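Input (structure):
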């Protein structure tokens, strides 16, 4: 069989974002999906370029969920010269696909589209909706603008702020920002209106030049339009990504990196890869790490991004970024999943997998510790979780198309990121075949999960163990873990 290169996570932070708990820029490269003859993996087309129709709003959203309006500003660069086939890569850059393709990809809830992803991972609680605007196809949520000059070299740490500020100025005549101040507080929040910049050229996270690094950030100073500061730090911000991915920019960007950046921009979720780029953090197991590049056999990377892990789902409050994990949890009543606390020894605790109608997670608080605990979830393999199958070794023949198992997460909310691999904010206790920390050899394997036939016990003396980060005994024992499946059981004592 054709062999694929291993997924490698290389990440780093450039600038911290004021009081927010995610970086101003994030950069990571992957080497993956390349077959022996050097060509890119076969791509299953998921582009829908038919006439855009605004999506219906599910009752689960209208009756207590969160609908977030978004305007997408498409940026082309006029360039000072016409770009030849092998000339200046930072010259003129125009869009390769039409706006219908992007409106459907972002706002439609059909197969493989971004809203379908958010509906699944939020259990029907969240969706994106196109903002009202008058450019091109009215109310498809997309405004196209053209900027003078060549495409800037964003890949060399050039700040995009001047270009994004200019783009907002040119987009302003087509949108009334005042319509989105729902609470009349004279500010536009993350929940009221999202700003996304879709930049012609490549997505630098997939190694393309010219490109823009996908990131979530804010504008300082923020431009004023219709009496509102747009993209202001602490309130609204923005997200951005490049139009094209793949060798020689052969395809439109997949939804994975878009979902990842919106995890920052809307829900203030931090990155869970190792932002010192010495290890893989939680690897492929979650959207806020390498799972944003999830895919199934025959797909392009990022076509099937995996779910946010249970810890991320329990912190999706849609609030401002300030001290999000300590002070604003469940701020507006929107949480994708609220874990159950296990407060005493119990037998036959049941966990249902990520896409099961009865999906649930458990927290085991460590006696005597504040904000340090274990969180358990059953990692499934259905729906968008199917993106794990190939990433956890499917391309090596290591899985049987079933990546279920118990993930034991060691959490310390006193930390802010996963940079310190000896003391992470979120650490996966790898049952077997460890490889996520520095010196590791992969970005995740099914054997990292607990299930009958792999490893079925977790306590103070096992490897890994249930000790606290300071090396003391937690007294927690988990054993009798069942076979992998839609529902899994285990016993706990402490």
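Output (sequence):
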């Amino acid at each position: 069989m054709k062999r694929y290169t291993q997924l490698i996570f290389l990440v780093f932070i450039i600038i911290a974002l004021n009081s927010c708990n995610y970086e101003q820029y994030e950069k990571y490269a992957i080497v993956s999906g390349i077959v022996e003859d050097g060509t890119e993996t076969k791509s299953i087309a998921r582009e829908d370029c038919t006439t855009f129709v605004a999506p219906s709003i599910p009752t689960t959203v209208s009756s207590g969920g969160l609908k977030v309006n978004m305007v997408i500003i498409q940026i082309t660069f006029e360039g000072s010269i016409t770009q030849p086939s092998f000339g200046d890569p930072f010259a003129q850059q125009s869009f390769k696909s039409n706006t219908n393709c992007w409106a459907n990809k972002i706002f439609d809830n059909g197969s493989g589209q971004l809203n379908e992803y958010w509906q699944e991972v939020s259990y029907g609680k969240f969706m994106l909706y196109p903002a009202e605007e008058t450019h091109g196809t009215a109310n498809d949520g997309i405004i196209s603008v053209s900027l003078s000059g060549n495409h800037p070299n964003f890949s060399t740490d050039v700040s995009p702020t001047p270009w994004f500020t200019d783009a907002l100025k040119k987009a302003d005549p087509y949108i009334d920002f005042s319509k989105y101040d729902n609470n009349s507080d004279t500010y536009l929040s993350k929940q009221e209106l999202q700003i996304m910049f879709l930049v012609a050229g490549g997505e630098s996270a997939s190694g393309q030049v010219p490109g823009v690094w996908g990131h979530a950030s804010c504008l300082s100073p923020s431009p004023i339009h219709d009496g509102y500061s747009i993209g202001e730090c602490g309130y609204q911000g923005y997200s951005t990504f490049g139009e094209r991915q793949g060798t020689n920019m052969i395809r439109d960007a997949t939804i994975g990196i878009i979902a990842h950046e919106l995890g920052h921009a809307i829900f203030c979720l931090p990155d869970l890869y190792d932002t010192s780029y010495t290890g893989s953090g939680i690897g492929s197991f979650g959207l806020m790490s390498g799972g944003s590049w999830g895919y199934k056999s025959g797909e392009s990377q990022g076509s099937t991004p995996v779910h946010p892990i249970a810890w991320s789902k329990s912190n999706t409050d849609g609030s401002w970024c300030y001290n999000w994990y300590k002070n604003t949890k469940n701020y507006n009543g929107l949480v994708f999943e609220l874990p159950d606390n296990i407060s005493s020894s119990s037998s036959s605790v049941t966990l249902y997998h990520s896409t099961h109608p009865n999906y649930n997670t458990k927290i085991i608080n460590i006696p005597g510790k504040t904000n340090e605990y274990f969180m358990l979830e059953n990692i499934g393999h259905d729906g968008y979780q199917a993106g794990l199958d190939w990433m956890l070794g499917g391309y090596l023949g290591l899985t049987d198309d079933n990546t279920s198992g118990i993930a034991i997460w060691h959490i310390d909310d006193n930390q802010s990121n996963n940079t310190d691999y000896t003391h992470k904010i979120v650490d996966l206790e790898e049952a077997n075949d460890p490889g996520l920390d520095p010196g590791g050899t992969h970005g995740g394997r099914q054997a990292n999960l607990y299930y009958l036939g792999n490893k079925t016990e977790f306590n103070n003396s096992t490897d890994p163990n249930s000790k606290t980060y300071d090396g003391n005994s937690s007294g927690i024992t988990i054993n009798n873990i069942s076979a992998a499946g839609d529902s899994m059981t285990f016993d706990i004592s402490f």
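Notes: The chain has eight helices and 20 strands. The first strand starts at residue 10 and ends at 13.
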